[in-house]
Sequence to fold (357 residues):
Amino acid sequence: MINFKNIYFENHLPMEFLYSMFAIGTGKHFSDMIREFDLEPNEKIIAVTAKMTSALSSYLSQELKYFFDLPGLGYILYKHILRNHHLKSIDHFLKDFETVEAIDFAYDVVKSVCKSNLSGENTSEYNNFGKSTAEMIMLVNQTIFQNSERKQRVLEILENPEESKQRLNLLLKQFYTRCFSPIESDITNIISESIVRYKSEFNNSPKEFMDKYFNFDLTSANTEVVIHTSFFKYVSWHNYSLYSEELADWFILGIYSDLLFNKNLSSERLAAFFKSLSDINRIEILKLLSERPWFGQELAEKLNITPATVSYHMAFLQRIGAVTFIRSDNRSYYSLNNAKFIRMLEDFTSFFKAKPL
Fold:
């Protein structure tokens, strides 16, 4: 039996702060991602991102790009957020992150990009490995990266962990002061309004809500789930979990995701289905999932793409219901929804069959 009381909606400012840095740091890719879902960035997001970008100095703009463009490693902050859920204000979060040892920050990065090559979690070997930058550098050099620039940045962090951590600390403080703080109250209100809307939909039918937005099978889930509705995620969703630490699962849901379900015309539904299959990586993902459920990191390594790229493609496949997200054995897996996928294929072909006069 699913315990829907363990699902919480939250306006978590440190997480929103992180997503604002993604939005500004990735530049044109952010608006391109929105358009991939057949939506246009609205006037509000255009105005806010323009205001934040104009507040950046040349130096901060370079640092933001270094840590938060597509090959950037600033995303690793999500781990500190999940471990410190109680830190609700950005100021408290930044002060707490300053106390993190540089070597621990570097090891979090390595665990993220070299997970499959590490010893079993919670073993002495696993824990001791993170104390030696030399050993971590050797591991990174043995790991295949889709993006050579990301590999170079991982190595730079390991070669200069103290300096890298100080650079990130300074960027976070300056970005908050110059860019996020002036719009914080406005963004907080926008997110709060979206929570009312989504929470009402959830309360009407919790299971339908989780299926609709996340295709998340909670049948075997024993953990809490936090849903943060995000202005800067804008559309679609992303999942964060720290599997070995038995913490809550997080889903970051773009506040405009409900717009994806406003179009009910059959031709538009089929167009979304066709678009979801129009990428070779998505075809390969479906082929692999037809064999067995896969962990996201496994798929990334198998296809030689990043975990973030896996999530990006999954958003399209889950939108049409072809893929289900399953929480089991303290891990989250992607599974092919065979019946729904076959039904969509049948609908697609029948749409073009001649109709009787």
Observations:
- The mean pLDDT is 86.
- The first helix runs from residue 13 to 25.
- The first strand starts at residue 7 and ends at 10.
- The chain has two domains: 4-254, 263-350.
